[in-house]
# Entry
Amino acid sequence: MEEKAQTPPGKKIALQLLLPLFPVEATLINNLVWLVQKELVKIYGYVIMPNHIHLMWEQLSMNGREFPKNSFEKVTAKSLVNNMKATNDTILKNYAVTATDRQYNIWLKDPLAIRVFSREMAVQKLDYMHINPMQPHWLLCTNPADYVFISYILRTKCG
# Structure
């Protein structure tokens, strides 16, 4: 029987309290949760940074004719742009593009995707992801367990 990892109670409460204060992170997390609930992806680890996201996932099935990655990017981009418009966020202009199919481009066209071939490689990539918030150029925390937008606590509690 397969056991499903659950968010430890303290982490869940912290997310519930913080998500209204962090609309970008809330958008990303809500869309990841939706993909998991629809059984389109299995998430092994994540870190949401101020200007990027690290995500280790397995795409389980298509979302209609669309890959889950494309669904995630499309829905989150639309939500983020709508949020920036609603709040008159001046940063939105930084994402403006002169393209025929869109006004704004939130995601990189070709993000760095690395295929993971072994458990050892997965552990190495997760370790890298989880120390990212502690890097000198970020200094977002001194311990990954203290950073809210990270899967580190799940990994340490659930293996």
